[in-house]
Design brief:
The protein has 6 helices and 9 strands. It is of the alpha+beta class. Among the domains are: 8-27 and 87-172, Ku70, Chain: A, Domain 2; 192-197 and 241-275, no CATH class. The strands form 2 sheets. A 7-stranded mixed barrel has the order 1-2-6-9-8-7-5. A two-stranded antiparallel sheet has the order 3-4. Strand 1 (8-14) and strand 2 (17-25) form a beta hairpin.
Length: 299
Amino acid sequence: MAGPRANWKGYIKFGEVSCPVALYTAASSSERIAFNTLNRKTGNRVRREFVDSETGDPVEREDQVKGYEIENGQYIVLEPEEVAAAVPESNKTLKIEAFIPCSQIDTTYFDKPYYLAPDKMGTDAFLLLRDGMKKEGVAAIAQTVLFRRMRTVLIRAHGKGLIASTLNFDYEVRSSDKAFDDMPDLKIGGEMLELAEHIIGTKKGSFDASTFDDRYEAAVAELVKAKIEGRALPKKKAPVASKPSDLLQALRESAGIGAKATKPKRTAANANRGAGRQKAAKAAAKSKQPAAPPTRRAG
């Protein structure tokens, strides 16, 4: 059986050391359920075509060109050969610019992952790079032309080889400021925070991608099967968001305790602080008690 087809072949270079490598797709959507667009009235497939926005006439492929809008309705036309000439020339080399600690990686910039493996000769240099990065706990930043565009690539040790993730440029990643503009400045504490910590503690685990199912794909497959068999699927109730007034009760139920049940056990530090406060209170109460009256002698 033939192996996977490489998406790109070139060299990886660090310092004066270089070795041939091949890039393979690490994530693909080819296994997802695919739909065709149909005409509801006839049941026939719909064909997509480009039409002139003013005349409504179809535009053949050879008459389609790229254009950059400079004003409303005014464009600069870019011919295919002009666009091709503007693409940076590829030297087929992933030149490592720097090694960075893995803890500094901001996953917001991640685009697509690819497996990076040695191609034919050069395995020794490849293994040297892989094992060196593993030992130092670092990733490599490199740049090259991939798929007709200049790309920044993050390279990390992964199993027996390397994984190369293309990165979005800084101008492509939106700032989070606007997304969190309406976030209220509240501090949650007391029982609610203790319950949240308790729930998180009971749900701790490790990452295993095989345990996560694509429920959408499974649901669509079941829907198609039901349609073929002429049966209907039951409608599901939409989830309801917890109201602020019900949040404490929802946390208690999530933690497996009733409304009147005891709170989750406090940490040893909290328990010691509580015991210390109780002792201090008892000592203060004793010091404020009136002295006992002297006993009288019978006489």
